[in-house]
Amino acid sequence: MNGSADTRAKLESLRDEIRYHNYRYHVLDDPEIPDAEYDRLMRQLQALEEQNPEFITDDSPTQRVGEQPISAFGTVEHRIPMLSLDNAFSSAELNDFHRRVIERLKLGDDGDSLRYAAEPKLDGAAVSLLYAKGRLVRGATRGDGTTGEDITHNVRTIKGVPLRLIGKGYPETLEVRGEVFMPKAGFEALNTKARELGQKLFVNPRNAAAGSLRQLDPKLTAARPLDIYLYSVGFAEGGSLPDRHSEILDQLQEWGLKTCPERKVVRGVQGCLDYYSDIGSRRETLRYEIDGVVYKVDSIAEQRRLGFVSRAPRWAIAHKFPAQEELTVVLDIEFQVGRTGALTPVARLEPVFVGGVTVSNATLHNIDELRRKDVRIGDTVIIRRAGDVIPEVVGVIQSRRPAKTRKVQLPKKCPVCKSAVAKEEGEAVARCTGGLYCSAQRAESLKHFVSRRALDIEGLGARLIEQLVAVDRIHTPADLFTLTEDELAAMERMAEKSAQNLIRSIEASKSTSLARFLYGLGIREVGEATAASLASHFGNLESLVAAREADLLKVPDVGPVVAARIRTFFDEPHNLEIIERLQKSGVHWPESEPETTESDGTLAGKVFVLTGTLSDMSRDEAKQRIIGLGGKVTGSVSKKTDFVVLGENPGSKLRKAQALNVSLLDESDFKELISGP
Ligand code: 9MJ
């Protein structure tokens, strides 16, 4: 008896929790928890209801396919229900799906070559568009799958939605379905504007797309950067369609309906898995947000034979990427001291699997962020890890804050060297004032000096550097070149062979380039690109050390702040002494002719940014060509950038360029430009 009362109470409390999150998500457009957590709650409820079917109630969130339409819009009955997709979270689950398909279709060994139409799974809002005699007559949201909201006025404002179909041969009546989404660049621009105006930010592009579609005033929707890709046909009358999904989409494209350019036909599970990893590796560089890929049995006849289960087709599955946001608990908050003394609050976490790896630390960026987000020890927080970016704490789940939490204050003294901590007014970053007295700053400077893009000393890891600093064996980079093999072999966890190899790579690192050396010195504000500009501008170290601020300002990429930092660095006798010792130990680089700043080349005055890998030339070569023609190359995209050159797998610079409307050049455009008239 008691057992069943407990079960009912548990069911009701889960349902209430899910209803609360439905409300936050669908009504307030302000979700509190990550999708992965919502999915877990839903699955928990489904499992509990499956075990206790007698307790299923009509008003349970499981009994609804999607969200109920809000009444402000007219409603639309979908003639054919708009289904959702089943999910596969692993290749094993994908294999199960494929096996079921083959069994149902009785394909036997032929199943290995079954054709699937594969496409990215867009993270936006599902819509239906109805065309009568080629004219757009209605747009609707998915709603609960059966009944959606009439958003005709809003979809008409989306430039990617044709108001009339083009070409010929389209059916008299055609209902197409797809995803309205907000491209990442547009989303960032929108949030930047909202931040400036002190307005509420959108949590993610999907939320922004869904919210934009449900504006009562179409002018508001029109001002939002929305786009669309169509991915299926609901029904077609008075005309015929091809008999493969992939060919139907080709046909839609010819009638002016946008389809995703990444879609592809693959064969069997292996083809699906290859597609999954290809799209996964390019996910960050796509201009829109996706949360997985979708595979659909390509043959429409086979789709019909497979049919549907209650909510989803049996012929399609969404293969999800690992969630990029997850929940966990903050065990502690510590301050890490960086190379420049910056104190970064870091949350120590209950380990959590997110973005494909287990994460136990996440950054809180700086003290202002920590205060703004009001993260406390004991809090349940959202952790985000996207691509290779350092995991960060996105925010706190207020409703899960325990009665007792502990707030963390900015320490007055450096947690490592006890020097005073200073934070300048208006600056977000607090710093340890200990300079090279602080062993953390010393260790971090050394790690930077030996890092791959600086002197590139292989085998000299963070642990070893920390040990060497802790025993006071190394104070400055120059001390690295006095290490002996015997000494290293005596260090903890150091095999003789590794000691030998390390000495060899220290020796090899002595032959470097001026750009790498300058970057390795760790001058504030001098990143890789600025170091490279300084190296090619001055050609040798002596001229750079002797340069006045006015001379430095002539270097592309160098403004007054950077120039002052460089001057301060070389005015410090201690720094010059280290440089001299390094050169005496044999660190050297080839010198080059200083650049002439006055140029009348064909690219005179044009500012370039390079991103991604070019197939026919190295980045350095590309850069030399631009400089040779009078142009400049800088490291980051700004309003001053004239062109961004895109190689293979461009990074965030592409998005920035799109947001700022900077001209983009692919490799062939670029080659044409530098080859001249
Ligand atoms: C998305 N979200 O990209 C479907 N979807 O197909 C794609 N969703 C879908 N297909 C049938 N590419 C139901 C939903």
What's the Cα radius of gyration? 30 Å
CATH superfamily annotation of the largest domain: DNA ligase/mRNA capping enzyme
Poorly predicted runs are: none
Please indicate the percent range of residues in DSSP E strands (runs of 2 or more): 15-25%
**Total domains, how many?**
6
Gap between N and C termini: 88 Å
Alpha-beta classification: alpha+beta
Largest sheet: 5 strands, mixed
Under the CATH scheme, the architecture of the largest domain is 2-Layer Sandwich
Strand order of the largest sheet: 2-11-10-3-9
Q: List the quaternary state of the chains.
A: single chain
The coarse silhouette is globular
Structure in words:
The protein is an alpha+beta fold. The chain has 6 domains: 3-67, Helix Hairpins; 87-320, D-amino Acid Aminotransferase, Chain A, domain 1, CATH 3.30.470; 325-422, Nucleic acid-binding proteins (OB fold (Dihydrolipoamide Acetyltransferase, E2P)), CATH 2.40.50.140; 435-509, Orthogonal Bundle (DNA polymerase, domain 1); 514-584, DNA polymerase, domain 1 (Orthogonal Bundle), CATH 1.10.150; 607-674, Rossmann fold (3-Layer(aba) Sandwich). The chain has 25 helices and 22 strands. Strands 2-11-10-3-9 form a 5-stranded mixed β-sheet. The chain has a 5-stranded antiparallel β-sheet with strand order 14-13-12-15-16. Strand 15 and strand 16 form a beta hairpin. Helix 12 runs antiparallel to helix 17. The radius of gyration is 30 Å and the shape is globular. It starts with a helix and ends with a helix. The model has no long low-confidence stretch (mean pLDDT 91). It binds 5-amino-3-(furan-2-yl)-1H-1,2,4-triazole-1-carboxamide. 5-amino-3-(furan-2-yl)-1H-1,2,4-triazole-1-carboxamide binds next to strand 3 and strand 8. 5-amino-3-(furan-2-yl)-1H-1,2,4-triazole-1-carboxamide (9MJ) binds next to strand 3 and strand 8.
